[in-house]
Predict the 3D structure of the following.
Amino acid sequence: MKVAVIMGGISSEREVSLNSGNEVFNGLDRNKYDVVKIIIDKTEDIFTKLTNDIDFAFIALHGKFGEDGCIQSILHAKGIPYSGCGPLSSGMCMDKNITKKILKNSNIPTAKWFVTNSCENIDYDKIESFKYPVFIKPNSGGSSVATFCVRSKEEVKPAIEKVLEVDEYAIIEEYISGGEYTSFVLNNEVYPTISIKANSEFFDYTAKYNDNGALEEVVYLEENLQNKINEISQICWDIFYCKAYVRIDMIIHDGVPYVLELNTLPGLTKASLIPKSAAAKGLGFSDLLDKIIEYSLTPSKVASLNY
């Protein structure tokens, strides 16, 4: 099987993607796969660099033209199987506003929010009903790029201005205090939970990608709470039509898991969160990549959509 690892891209998360892509390229078993790299520098590259002899595309892109369903649609149209979720799931999960509407409709706890695409007529009353601090960030961004913890009315407009430089919409979100956790789901099976303790105000870009930016470790929580996390993870898998794998980020406040977002193409370096979760269950990095390919090539495993 000839596997193309697609990396780079046009988003603000390009460097993260190159790191993920190189790790995947190095981690794929050469006894099973003929592996090539495809580095995307502009959107047209997917048409000119992806040759007709590719049997499978392993997508290691992040952000715009990676996680938003665009490249998935192109690969689907070209008849090339690819890793992870389809165009619809990818697009829904990339859009935080849509994600949170679906979560709310499915009775999954999530922080209060609203979106805006303008710095004029900001609804300060609504923001103040959330109580400061609030988070202001791109509606369709990742890796905590242009994400601000805003503590006063005076900081709101400058933060929205910065966000609108990188995205069409800004999301203003209620701050939920508590511990941050992530749940890895592989083919509808929930793997061990990871606890994230940032060495900064929150789990920002620096904390995510710098050495010693955060303490990330597998945790085994009290049974009731772990069952809640697992149940919410499986509901999220079903309602967003996930396939192969997904990472679900949460804040736990007073024993209640609040879902922050779903990552349909999470980081895949050996130091990333999901390889740590997989390793806790005895699944090494190369084997994890095998499973992602296997489950991407088979129909998605779901439980029920009656939520």
Observations:
- The mean pLDDT is 92.
- The longest helix spans residues 223-239.
